[in-house]
Design goal:
alpha+beta, about 475 residues, 15 helices
């Protein structure tokens, strides 16, 4: 009868899993009972087109930039948003930073709304239209920056223009913080944070680009999900270098630098970083998992038991889900000999890494060295920054953002998540733990693919909802 003991244990375990799964129900929905917002949507479309016409392309090599185009955009703003300029003060800080202050009835709990007005380069040969001469077709505006992020730049100022022209004054001061060098990790946002810090200004919450309203991005959930980043992964570029005496390729020695680096590359790829369930991802699973199908709900309700299964799914599928769970390594550059018949005296690889919130640049570099385990391969960090501070969600700022989302995109599930890209908002961790990363747009997979790509475009109805979101958010400030 001894076999009854393990059978009993399995039966109890099964019962616990089923009960926990059945209790894993969706949380109460956020109230979505606010009336519709009326505003001039066509003007917002026209304004966005004017902004896109300014070729505010940022480059690592500053000599390639056209400073006149940046000045052109700034000079254009008073005519597009006259009420904003009559009411708000504008402080221009170094590195093309713009800081508008909309003084409220009190300065006690100011809000900060961010965007950047620089864009990445566009190869006109790959576009169906001129990337800097916006075209409206098929219900969308085509042009560089329509998604990243002149749309939110336009949305913020359009919302403020509408509210100010109606005589609205926010309860608390609102700052509009814009950077002209985000795409190249410029110092504009840093200079704004320095200004806040030096003047004792602590934001009640900060909103910047990040997640969006998307579908089919979470296992077992088909409906729309509004993903709000409460942290972002760290960034790290690592170089792997191997030296040799060189020589003619006709008589190679047993190991060339390229051979050695190839083995190092394979070792790193075959030994991915250990997964970590960070707080932002745990909150995402706890929110969206409750809306999933029964099998996935069972996994997310019982991660204490099924975490290895989830980890296996993530590793095999790759992509976004895997990126949420671990530090990722993508080999992106290789360099060797200048001629095909010469063994290189020096060869190198470069990997781009995104660090899980529970890893650091130091721990990641140590793991790579241990994994490569070859003294002939030098492993060095080129650039790096640690993961951002994790924001809290049990605060009024979070509730305001969620309310504005729920009332703009009715029926969408609002959830925290971990942003795998980098943004200017990471610098605000110095002064706030209430930094929320949400690009106020509903985007399809195809539309998201045009960010930094060819034929970038935004649907007009999406642009209008962006303005609506910011109107709702500003009314709560």
């Amino acid at each position: 009868m001894w076999w009854l003991i393990p059978v009993g244990i399995i039966a109890i375990l099964f019962l616990v899993v089923i009960i926990r799964t059945l209790m894993f129900k969706p949380k109460a929905a956020i109230a979505a009972d606010q009336p519709a917002e009326e505003f001039d949507g066509e003007k917002a479309v026209s304004d966005l087109c004017e902004l896109v016409r300014c070729k505010t392309v940022s480059y690592e090599d500053k000599s390639l930039e056209d400073d006149e185009e940046f000045k052109k955009l700034i000079a254009l703003l008073p005519s597009l948003y006259p009420s904003v300029f009559r009411t708000c003060s504008l402080l221009e800080l170094p590195d093309r930073a713009l800081l508008f202050k909309w003084t409220g009835k009190t300065d006690n709990d100011p809000a900060v709304m961010m965007a950047h007005y620089d864009v990445v380069p566009a190869d006109a040969n790959g576009w169906e239209t001129d990337p800097f001469e916006p075209v409206i077709k098929d219900g969308a505006v085509f042009g560089r920056g329509t998604l990243d992020t002149k749309v939110t730049f336009c949305g913020i100022l359009s919302a403020a223009e509408k509210l100010i022209s109606e005589g609205f004054t926010p309860e608390n001061t609102v700052y509009f913080a814009f950077s002209g060098g985000e795409e190249v990790n410029g110092k504009g946002a840093i200079n704004i944070v320095d200004y806040f810090e030096q003047n004792g200004i602590t934001p009640s919450f900060v909103v910047d680009e990040g997640g969006a309203v998307v579908e089919d991005v979470f296992p077992g959930v088909k409906g729309a999900c509004a993903l709000v980043g409460i942290a972002e992964k760290g960034l790290m570029n690592v170089e792997y270098t191997c030296l040799s005496s060189g020589g003619h390729a006709s008589a190679p020695k047993p190991k060339t630098p390229v051979d050695t680096l190839a083995k190092a590359c394979v070792k790193v790829v075959k030994n991915p970083f250990k997964s970590h369930l960070s707080a932002p991802v745990a909150k995402m699973f706890d929110t969206l998992g409750r809306h999933s199908t029964f099998v996935f709900k069972m996994i997310f309700a019982n991660l204490w038991l099924f975490y290895p299964v989830l980890d296996m799914i993530c590793k095999s599928s790759g992509g976004d889900l895997n990126a949420l769970m671990r530090t990722t390594v993508a080999f992106t550059q290789m360099n060797g000999s200048a001629a095909p018949n010469v063994i290189p005296p020096k060869a190198s690889l470069v990997s781009n890494m995104r660090l899980n919130p529970l890893d650091t640049t130091d721990s990641a570099l140590e793991y790579l060295k241990k994994t490569v385990n070859d003294d002939s391969v030098q492993v060095n960090m080129l650039i790096g920054n640690n993961p951002s501070r994790i924001s809290v969600t049990d605060c009024l700022g979070w509730e305001k953002v969620c309310s504005a989302i729920a009332n703009t995109w009715r029926g969408a599930i609002v959830s925290p998540y971990l942003m795998v890209q980098c943004s200017d908002s990471r610098h605000y961790g110095r002064i706030s733990d209430k930094v929320f990363r949400f690009s106020a747009m509903d985007l399809t997979k195809e539309e998201r693919a045009t960010i930094h790509g060819n034929n970038e475009h935004i649907r007009i109805e999406t642009l209008k909802r962006t303005v609506e979101f910011y109107i709702r958010l500003m009314r709560q400030c």
